[in-house]
Amino acid sequence: MSTVSAVIPGRNCAATIEACLAAIVAIGARPGSPLEEIIFVDDGSTDDTAAIAGRHPVTVLAGTGSGAGSARNLGWRAARGDLVWFVDSDCVAAPDALEHLVGHLEAPDVAAVSGTYGNANADSLLPCLIHEEIVQRHLAMGEEVDFLATFNVLYRRSVLADLDGFDERYLKAQDAELSFRARDAGGRLRFEARSRVDHYHEQRLGSYLRTQRQQGYWRVWLHLEHPGRAGHNSYSNALDHVQPMLAMALLASLPLAVVPYARWTPVVLLGLLLVTQIPMTTAIVRRTGRLSHVLFAGMSAVRAVWRGVGMTHGVLAYLLRKRAEEPHQVSGGES
Question: Which of 17, 279, 285, 324 is most buried when burial is the number of CB atoms within 10 A of its CB?
């Protein structure tokens, strides 16, 4: 039977790490559990995170403060298990979360398998809007997928070693980037809807939108470095990728509001952006039966603007980096 090491990276997560670690320790204590080791990587916390983690029977490692990818690399490289279970520090695993994942890796060509989310703060509107979108997307996913997230994912340690782990340049989207390389190396990726971790979603709109801007930035790098995957994938579709571009076109068109014969351009673009919210908003409202979830349309439209800003920044930064890496041309004749 394969052994499992759990790796949890975290920074300034004192509010959630107690529940996170308690749940994983309980899983390890279950009779017959393959979980033999729990590693928490404190990635430069300035609050009580490390002290709270130290009260649990886990190995606490000091990270470098370089981001989640770096912390995860530090953790899995110190792990002894055949399989490495990555769980985010703001997630609380269900008692059977791990057992539903392990069986998938009995197939030798499966590189990794990921689970789904529950909602740990269902009494707040913004977390509910965020969560119900994720649920809707996960309901549409099959067992075989083309990329994985790391909030609840089980990897073969040998795959991590062969790929040299996460690309530490990526402060976001490093999970998708790793799974792209795993697939390119011939590994299969799976999704297991029965494996659930309850997630503490962001409750402040400003913080959520800043994170979405960062996601937009790094998604540009991801798709420029891994071309051919930007149109759609197991989790999203072409409409999702169009929305940030519509949002940027809307912002660029705002000066036209004072130009005769062009003043309706921003209104038309805003209308198109809102129309693209209809399919997901309708699906969420129908499934949940909660009319308040129609507010998802507005939240998602605003999010598209922030993602678009991040993507624009990402394109410029990527092109500037590539230009800086070009070899300098030496003019003049031969000597």
Answer: 17
Q: For residue range 226-253, what is the model confidence (pLDDT) as tens digits?
A: 887 776 788 888 888 899 999 999 999 9
Are 110 and 67 found together in one domain? yes
Residue 213 lies in a domain: no
Inter-CA distances, 115 with 63, 118, 193, Å:
26, 10, 6
* CA nearest to 80, candidates 4, 9, 160: 4
Q: Which residues of 93-110 are buried (b: 16+ CB within 10 A; e: fewer)?
A: bbeebbbbbbebbeeeeb
Contact by Cβ (8 Å): 159, 112: yes
Query: What band does 330 get if pLDDT is binned at 50, 70 and 90?
Result: very low
Q: Is 153 exposed, middle or buried (0-12, 13-18, 19+ CB in 10 A)?
A: buried
Q: How many helices (H) and strands (E) does the chain have?
A: 12, 9
CB atoms within 10 A of CB 245: 15
In a domain, 215, yes or no: no
Q: Is pLDDT of 67 > 80?
A: yes
Question: pTM of the predicted model, to two decimals?
Answer: 0.91
Those residues whose C-beta lies under 8 Å from the C-beta of residue 325, and which sit 6 or more positions away, are none
How many residues make up the chain in this entry? Answer: 335
Q: Are 151 and 117 in contact (CB under 8 A)?
A: yes
Indicate the helix (H) or strand (E) that contains 323.
helix 296-325
Number of domains in the chain: 2
**Would residue 103 count as lying in a domain?**
yes
